[in-house]
């Protein structure tokens, strides 16, 4: 049946042409899919930035800060308020990501003193066993109790000058980030 075989052959060629068109279409579409993810990320960052209190936004949008650090989008809440230096004025702690290394940390703003500190995000944290990245922290909260129990592996106890940040790796470990009067230091709580 030559006519049938001819038709079958042309159908086969037609299928290949359709397949090629589909592949070309997908190849053309792929950059759009990637940029769609970028747009989503940009939108998330825009929403978070728009949600910042104006005092914290003014600090964050300084070129030397925003130019070097992106907002951390994978922690909730993405900023905390507490009196970290103990001057009775509420301060801010904001989750950030070092743009150069992707290492995560915290931007702490002493609102009364108008000074800020970067904890982690590529900078070594005092008494942290050489930690410069807080990516492991998947939850955080304010620690308001002044008396701190002696932590696992710690040789001395500490007395807090203000409130501290309790960093948590859920179902694993926790630590305090607290103001010593000169710098932010880490104090392990439990493993
Ligand atoms: Ca304060």
Describe the structure.
The protein folds into two domains: 1-51; 54-190, no CATH class. It has helices at residues 2-51, 54-60, 63-66; strands at 69-71, 79-82, 91-98, 104-110, 115-120, 139-143, 164-169, 173-179, 184-190. The strands form two sheets. Strands 1, 2, 3, 4 and 5 form a five-stranded antiparallel β-sheet that branches. Strands 6-7-8-9 form a four-stranded antiparallel β-sheet, with no helix packed on it. It has three helices and nine strands. Strand 2 (79-82) and strand 3 (91-98) form a beta hairpin. The model has no long low-confidence stretch (mean pLDDT 89). With 191 residues, it is α+β, with helices and mostly antiparallel strands. 32% of the residues lie in helices and 28% in strands. Bound molecules: calcium ion (CA). The site of calcium ion (CA) has 8 residues, from loops.
């Amino acid at each position: 049946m030559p006519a049938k075989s001819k038709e079958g052959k042309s159908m086969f060629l037609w299928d290949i042409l359709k397949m090629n068109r589909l592949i070309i279409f997908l190849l053309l579409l792929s950059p759009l899919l990637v940029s769609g993810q970028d747009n989503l990320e940009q939108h998330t960052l825009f929403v978070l930035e728009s949600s910042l209190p104006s005092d914290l936004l003014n600090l964050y949008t300084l070129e030397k800060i925003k130019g070097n650090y992106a907002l951390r989008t994978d922690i909730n809440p993405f900023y905390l308020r507490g009196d970290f230096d103990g001057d009775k004025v509420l301060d801010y702690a904001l989750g950030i990501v070092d743009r150069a290394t992707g290492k995560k940390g915290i931007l702490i703003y002493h609102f009364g003193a108008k000074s800020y500190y970067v904890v982690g995000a590529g900078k070594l944290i005092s008494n942290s066993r050489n930690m410069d990245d807080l990516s492991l922290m998947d939850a955080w909260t304010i620690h308001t109790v002044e008396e701190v129990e002696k932590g696992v592996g710690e040789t001395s106890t500490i007395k807090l000058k203000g409130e501290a940040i309790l960093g948590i790796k859920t179902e694993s470990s926790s630590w305090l980030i607290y103001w010593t009067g000169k710098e932010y230091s880490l104090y392990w709580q439990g493993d």
